[in-house]
Amino acid sequence: MLKPISEIMGARVVDLDTSQNLGEIMNWVINPEQKRISALMIKPAGMFTRMMAIATIDIVEYGPKIVVVKNSFAIVSPSEIVHLPKLMRPKQRVIGSPVVTVTGKKLGTVEEILFETSDSTIQKIYIQPGILSILNQPDIIISADKIIAIEPRRIVVQDDNGAWQTIKKTALSES
Question: Which pTM value belongs to this model?
Answer without folding.
Answer: 0.82
